[in-house]
């Protein structure tokens, strides 16, 4: 024991000395069994006793998101227990590691603990360890390669340390943080020097750019950077400058309020006399406060400037709404995957703003503040976890979509072909704002993954990621039904069982389509639909009962899935706080027995929809409601009586009042909306569809509809409603 302890201490001491001399950051990966790793943790704690230390482990029942509370802080050492148990199995929490590695300053050391079983069973871990050999500051120490063996001799103190450590490894341990900005009471704004507070020229430029946005109505400012470049600090410095002036209201927005903790701390260090109440800081007549993005969109706010931090964590449609609603905007975001799909932000959101320089200003902070520009730990993370994955620049100008080749790729084929893996993962990052480093682990390690790609020559043009679900044993299904278990995965059958009450939901095999992505140059050529058609063929060959998908629904996405033969099974009651979208579940039956079950699901969905539109779905997008009714199955359409027909004709002829005819008008529209062909559908504008949906299906009050559609009172409302229904009536009668 003594020899082993001295050996590891010596390694740590030598490595820290080397890192201090080179100003590099490094990593030490320890691979051994649980008992051996626990001994190393004790030694590491003693070796790091005089350092700013952060430890992390995740065990059953812990909150995986806790690591986000530590982002923005600074540490000198990290002990990351990648062998701690999750659901009874050793689990390397890659999202936590990539994020927490960004808290380490120059000359710091990350220690990662793994087991040999993880290396043997995980292609992700094998690849991660293989990548380490390319970096001089990344060391691997395996228990099997050491001559020392645990002899069980421990002092009383060591036993006590081990007991407390074992119980505490599921949480964070950290010493008080060093001041990131020297505190000083600023008597007035003249004493505030942004140039002395800014650590780099780029950060200084960013602060000045934020202040320009606040000083006058101008184009939006976009600040992007990899982690550790000081973009959030730039927002804090600019905010402090504005708080020292009179009558400035600053609004900050982020996907998670806790991620702004350091922003608020920095403000209070720069201006110690700030008054704080929850997420609001104030000084005299100026203030800064957190406002959620959904509130910003629904309720117009007045502010000197609106700062949107980690903007890539929001769906693009919400960012677009924000940009259309406000002028004094600053979007700031990490762009390489620590918090979300930064590349999706760059590829999809920024083009909606227009041309850079003409319609928005873009600053990219490249120079690190926390570490060297050629930092080895950052390069290792980028390479191992594909945080630097880039979309191919290949265009489809001279390509023939008919020459595409569709393939099902195994995890082993991805592991053995780095170029192929990078192409696939970069597409997934671009396709969805929630793609994380853990999705790379999913690709390489999860046996439930089925990956279909569309390839033109050597270029991956499209990707479809599917997950197998369903067919669990009856005992586990019963525990799920009783609320005792919620196994990972199996989203579709669990939702149908728990929320829909369908007791036989787990009797079927599902392939849930988690992602569909197509290269920008290949989009709008039917590649996505071709991918789904190949997935249909593949699933049928595999004996799957259902193809399924679940996503935040909006009209274009709903139309895409409808075109490809999918139909509604469920719609979430509560809109997602980040996206503002309800979660739609759509299915496509592939077998005779699943067709009968799906007919039941689909019919019940529309029967329930009639009720929920005037309650839980009353705020649902009217275009969505219209589209869902257009897809209503023929065997689930209301029947019309002769009396209904008479009332509808009377309303159209202006001889019957709306209140008398409303139930018949609703039934008539439910029946005939399916008969509108594409040409007739396009002749109806959005306002005409909206007033029909709001009045007949969602049952909003007249005052609310007048306000929503900017009408000039009740008389204008009655005329607009009659005109819209009359137009639909005539279009249907012509067909």
Keywords:
Aminopeptidase, alpha/beta, Rossmann fold, eight-stranded mixed sheet, globular, seven-stranded mixed sheet
How is this fold's topology laid out?
Elements: H1 2-22, E1 26-31, H2 34-47, E2 53-57, E3 75-81, E4 85-86, E5 89-90, H3 94-100, E6 104-114, H4 116-121, H5 123-132, E7 138-142, H6 156-168, H7 194-197, H8 201-215, E8 221-225, H9 231-243, E9 249-253, H10 261-270, E10 275-277, E11 280-283, E12 286-290, H11 293-298, E13 305-309, H12 316-325, E14 329-334, H13 342-353, E15 361-365, H14 376-385, E16 405-409, H15 411-416, H16 418-431, H17 437-445, E17 449-456, E18 459-470, H18 474-481, H19 491-498, E19 509-518, H20 527-541, E20 546-552, H21 555-563, E21 567-571, E22 583-589, H22 592-612, H23 622-630, H24 642-652, H25 658-672, H26 678-683, H27 686-697, H28 702-708, H29 714-733
Parallel strand pairs: 1-6, 1-7, 2-3, 3-6, 8-14, 8-15, 9-12, 9-13, 13-14, 19-20
Antiparallel strand pairs: 4-5, 10-11, 11-12, 16-17, 17-18, 18-19, 20-22, 21-22
Helix pairs in contact: 1-2, 2-6, 5-14, 8-9, 9-10, 12-13, 23-27, 24-25, 25-29, 27-29
How would you describe this protein?
This protein is an alpha/beta fold. The protein has four domains: 167 residues, Rossmann fold, CATH 3.40.50; 177 residues, 3-Layer(aba) Sandwich (Rossmann fold), CATH 3.40.50; 210 residues, 3-Layer(aba) Sandwich (Aminopeptidase), CATH 3.40.630.30; 97 residues, no CATH class. The chain is built from 29 helices and 22 strands. Strand 13, helix 12 and strand 14 form a beta-alpha-beta unit. It is globular. About 7% of the residues have low confidence.
